[in-house]
Amino acid sequence: MSKLKPGVLGTFFGKTGRVVVVKWRDQLVGRSEPSVPTKPPTKKQMEQRKKFGTVTSFLGTLTEAINMGYSSRSKVNGTSAAVRDNLKIAVYGSYPDYQIDYPKVIVTKSNNGFHGGFSVSVESGAQRKVTVNWNALNSDEHIPGTAGPTDLANVVFYNVNKRKSTYCFGTVKRNARTASYKLPVHYVGHEFHAYLFFTSADGRYISTSDYLGKFILQD
Amino acid sequence: MAIRKNGDNFPSGKMGNVNTYLLKTQIISRVIGKTNKPATVPQLVCRQKFDVLGHFLKPVKPFINVGFDLVTRGTKWSPINKATSVNYSNAIKGEFPHQEIDYSKAILTMGNMPSVENVDVQVVDGGLEFSWDPNWKIGNMLSSDRVMFLAYCPAKCTAFFILDGEKRSKGKEQLEILPSQDKVILHTYLAFIAADRKRISTSIYTGEICY
Q1: What is the pTM of this model?
Q2: Residue A49: enclosing H or E segment and its boundaries?
Q3: What digits encode the pLDDT tens for the residues A109-133?
Q4: Closest-CA distance of chain B to residue A124, Å
């Protein structure tokens, strides 16, 4: 066991080679790496691992939106925070068949009451055209820190068949109340889930995401 | 390293794990760091109160900045501090761990102008209509006072508000509210502010509405 003090090397934590540096009783301690457990996992462990895997593999396809939506001011990074929230609400089923509950998934989370869309919906039309609708207040004025007409709409389309996401960020303003997008031709016939969230024009504020609905892309 | 700058009578900055700085009118010294001791029950009670208050007050912050501006001007308080303080002791009901906001007791503006009575709130097309008696006046109420409304939606954790609505003499005003997919409960509040923004009434709770 070696004790490190701030010196020319500075302070560091974590694993270097086979040495793990940790803080233990206010001391920095280097110890050898623990061995991989040989005991078989318990049923509870297996359940948790499976659940965790289901959520992380799904959220891994939404990384860009999550990095935008979950602020990284705290010590927990965006993806971890999103996994924590969705693990609680967006999984159903029993071991080993855990499923994602798509309508309950949170892609972005507001921390200050900046509101998202109201009465939101999505429609799939001919020629791979997808229309997203929402409702907004009529006023043209904007109180800083609250929802205003210049906020930008962001839509995430999750392709269930391909397990991939398509992002459409910041092209339409909130007071337009509708936006239409064209998805790639090789996605025709695939099933999609869509999520909508808003960001303020300066990017400081972000709303909690809303589930728009599911649709099948038409040719 | 804390530095005593020219003319200051306190060192500002971090000395050991104590941080010193000037906040409004006070010199604050506080210890930085985390404790490893498990929290006691009174600590958990207090933390939960701040948690529920934070969720309630954040969406209504622009309203509070106006509503608590007059009582906090020139003091050590900021508007959100004062609002948290007032509602901490009044507007929380239930026992730990089931503490929640008592919306009927929450206060969102504070001042010495008398509050109006007999306010009627009704659902109309596109929002809510608030009406009051324009001729009922006591104390320092003026017919030029402006009305302020707020409707708070706990389900969406958001608020709709007007900071300067119609004059008191008009007797009614509408607040635009966006409909949600499902019916939601709205908690409504009303206050009056003088045209010169030098006086304000304490807000009153005008009931909950299913919208």
Answers
A1: 0.78
A2: helix A43-59
A3: 887 778 888 888 899 888 889 999 9
A4: 19
